[in-house]
Amino acid sequence: MNGADKAKKEPVEADSDTDSEDVSSDDSTWIQWFCGLRGNEFFVEVDEDYIQDDFNLTGLRSMVPNYDYALDMILDAETDEALTECQQESIQSAAEMLYGLIHARYILTNRGLSAMVEKHNSMDFGRCPRVYCQGQAILPVGQSDIPRMNTVKLFCPKCEDIYYPKYTRHNHLDGAYFGTTFPHLLLQMYPELVPSKPTLSYTPRIYGFKIHKPSIKSGGGGGGGTSVGGSNNNNNNTTTVTTATPTGPTASVVKAEKEPKADKPTKTVTGSTVAK
Known about the structure:
Elements lengths: L2 H5 L22 H6 L12 H5 L14 H8 L10 H22 L3 H12 L17 E3 L11 E4 L4 E3 L18 H8 L15 E2 L2 E2 L15 E4 L8 E6 L8 E6 L8 E4 L2 E4 L1
Antiparallel strand pairs: 1-2, 2-3, 4-5, 6-7, 7-8, 9-10
Helix pairs in contact: 4-5
């Protein structure tokens, strides 16, 4: 692929949050050009000898359309076949997909891991947005190894959670181009990069008091119910009311005094007193 062909593929629109520059030199290879595009900063350059080994590409032919043309484009192989502009765009798209799938395999090799460690140490992938991770360096990861399922996410080895990329220019990257294995294998191979777990976590409070979860009854149902138990004890004339409040796991017991029965009026009859 010559420089004129490369120019037909317009670079991804730049965000205002970067100062990086596209690699557009005529003497650059397709791989250098592709990795230099804005939005492709997460990629490393795959060695051509790795791509030329058919064993490393096993199974990819059935996944990528125009496989042979795409592979020739990645390796800058010359072709005398005249292609229409539509065909060139189709092959360009296939080449990007093929390179991404090769990249996912390459970064699991020793050379690939080493190249990704350099990017990790340079904070090229960014920092964890969680406050209590204190700016921990993060790593790209896919939620699936099947292409076109999910976009790339960023894994924090400190809190062990994943996040969306900070910049929108990275939201178009396919997660399968980094795979589900990469960050965890890297941390196994480079244990010195494994951080200590966070010791602090955020505690929700209202007016300085911790918020407790609602009480849950053993008999099912929600935690905001009220149970009332009546007592016919004539000695104390009390009723016990038990309420399960949403502000704490314990129930409050309230004793409500019954009003004393009013004395029945009496009627005076000659010679005796009769109660109504």
